[in-house]
Design goal:
alpha+beta, GMP Synthetase, Chain A, domain 3, three-stranded mixed β-sheet
């Protein structure tokens, strides 16, 4: 799932080399922290948060198969 977040973010931004994803696991809960360049922050969040919400929806669908709970934080 970490790769999913990374691929999605790299395809959205102008500086794909500055995209990094860290993963924290706490039992069945997984938190992904997405770091992008400050100039690309708007592209990852989208108008009214639509792109961020879509990324979270995809992550939850992927995690549902494994019966995990997932959070995506954009830092």
């Amino acid at each position: 799932m970490k790769e999913l977040v990374e691929v999605l973010a790299k395809n959205l931004v102008d500086n794909p080399d500055q995209v990094s994803v860290t993963e924290r696991i706490d039992g069945d809960n997984i938190t992904f922290e997405l770091n992008v360049a400050e100039s690309d922050m708007g592209k990852v969040i989208g108008k009214q948060g639509r792109i961020a919400k879509a990324m979270r929806t995809l992550l939850k669908a992927a995690a549902n198969k494994d019966k995990k709970r997932v959070r995506l934080e954009i830092v």
